[in-house]
Design a protein that fits this description.
The structure is a homodimer of 206-residue chains.
Chain A (H helix, E strand, L loop, with lengths): L7 H19 L4 E2 L1 H8 L3 H9 L5 E2 L3 E3 H11 L6 E6 L3 H7 L9 E8 L8 E2 L2 E2 L1 E2 L3 H8 L3 E4 L3 H13 L4 E4 L12 E4 L2 H9 L4
Parallel strand pairs in A: 4-5, 4-9, 5-8, 9-10, 10-11
Antiparallel strand pairs in A: 1-3, 2-3, 6-7
Helix pairs in contact in A: 1-4, 2-3
C-alpha cells in the first residue's frame, strides 16, 4: 500500500468509520452496507465507497462489507495493530482525565508516561503513573522511542513543549492547548480543542 | 448569507482559520495572506481562498487579509458574536476538566450548568457550579433554552443522555464518550475522542 498519496481528508475519516464499525461489532452485527455506515457517521454512502476504494476492494456488490474484515483492514491501514506508547505532558485537569481515560484500550494507544514541571506534582501518583519532571523530557522520550504525545499544558507553554517533543523525536502531537503549534515538516499536529468542536456546529444553529 | 448551502467540510475549517487568526492577532499582527495562514494550519493557500470566497470578498489581491476584519467576519458566519450557554453532562475526570476549561472564554461559549446522576456528586461544587441531578435534566435544559451540550458520561450511558438532550431541545452535542450517537435530523454531533485524534496521525508514522 502506498502511504502519503492518500489525501489527508480521506485518512481523517477512516477512524470515524472504524469507530462506527466497532460499535456495530459490539452489537453482534456481522455485515454492513455503505448506506448504513453512512447514516451512522453522517457521510454519504458514495463518499464512503470512494474513500474505501482507495485502499482496495473491501465490499461485495449486493452483500456489503464484512464488519470484522473491514475493521481489520482499517486497523492495518491506520497502523493500529501495534500499540503506540503515548507521552502525556501537563497534569492539570485535562491531563488527569487523559491519564485515566478508558477509551484508549484496544484502540491502538497506551499512555506510557506523564510529565509536568510543577514541583508540587512531580513524583506524585496519577492513576498508574508517577509524574515525571519536564526537565528530563527530551532524553526520556528519545530513549523510550516514543513517537506520539498529548499536550495539555497552558497555551503559553505549549509551543515550548512542542519544540522539546520534536527534538525528542515525536512525530504526532495531539494538542489540547488552545493555540496553534508550529512544527517542522514530518511532524503532525491534531487539535482537540473543545471550542473548535463547538464552533463547527454553531454555524447551523438557528 | 445563505446557511446550510455551504458544505460541512468548509464550515469545519473555519474555526481552524479563526484560531490561527486570533493567534496572529495576539501577536499584534495586522494583516495576513492565504499563504501564511495556510502554512499555519496545514491547508493550501488555494483551498483557503476558495473556502473564504464562499462567504464574500474578504481579502484584496496583493494586500491580503485584514486580520481583525476577517476574525469579525468568521465570528459572524459561525454565529459566535453571542455567547452560547452549554450544558455539561457527566462529572468524571473529563467533565471536571471541561467545567474549568479556560479556553471557552471569548470564543463563543460558557458552561452554564453541569449534571451527574451519582448521588455522591449531586449537590457538590465543581468550579463555579453545583452539580445538578440528571433526573431533572429535560425540564431544566428546556427552561433555560440551552441548545448546546457536552457529553462526558461513560459509553454505555451516552445514548440515553443524548436522547434526553434531544427531547430537551439541544441541537449541538459535543460527545466525549467513545461511542457513535444516533440523533434525529437537525441535531449535530461532534466527537472529540482522543483515540480518533491519534488514529488520524498513526497512518503517517513510519
Amino acid at each position: 500500500m502506498i502511504r502519503r498519496d492518500i489525501p489527508d481528508i480521506i485518512v481523517s475519516r477512516l477512524p470515524i468509520y472504524l469507530r462506527a464499525l466497532r460499535h456495530m461489532q459490539a452489537q453482534k452485527q456481522q455485515t454492513t452496507s455503505s448506506q448504513e455506515l453512512g447514516e451512522q457517521v453522517g457521510i454519504s454512502a458514495a463518499q464512503i465507497r470512494k474513500d474505501l476504494s482507495q485502499f482496495g476492494e473491501f465490499g461485495k456488490q449486493g452483500t456489503g462489507y464484512n464488519i470484522a474484515f473491514l475493521i481489520g483492514k482499517l486497523r492495518e491501514i491506520l497502523q493500529l495493530e501495534k500499540v503506540w506508547d503515548v507521552a502525556l505532558i501537563g497534569m492539570g485537569d485535562m491531563g488527569h482525565a487523559l491519564a485515566r481515560y478508558p477509551g484508549f484500550t484496544d484502540r491502538g494507544f497506551r499512555v506510557a508516561m506523564v510529565f509536568d514541571n510543577d514541583p508540587g506534582k512531580i513524583g506524585t501518583q496519577v492513576g498508574d503513573f508517577e509524574v515525571r519532571n519536564m526537565k528530563g523530557i527530551v532524553d526520556t522520550i528519545r530513549e523510550a522511542e516514543i513517537k506520539v504525545a498529548m499536550v495539555c499544558v497552558p497555551a503559553e507553554a505549549a509551543q515550548e513543549v512542542a519544540n522539546q517533543l520534536v527534538v525528542a523525536g515525536v512525530k504526532a502531537i495531539l494538542n489540547y492547548a488552545p493555540i496553534s503549534l508550529s512544527v517542522p515538516e514530518g511532524v503532525r499536529v491534531q487539535y482537540l480543542d473543545p471550542s473548535i468542536g463547538l464552533q463547527r456546529m454553531t454555524y447551523y444553529l438557528g
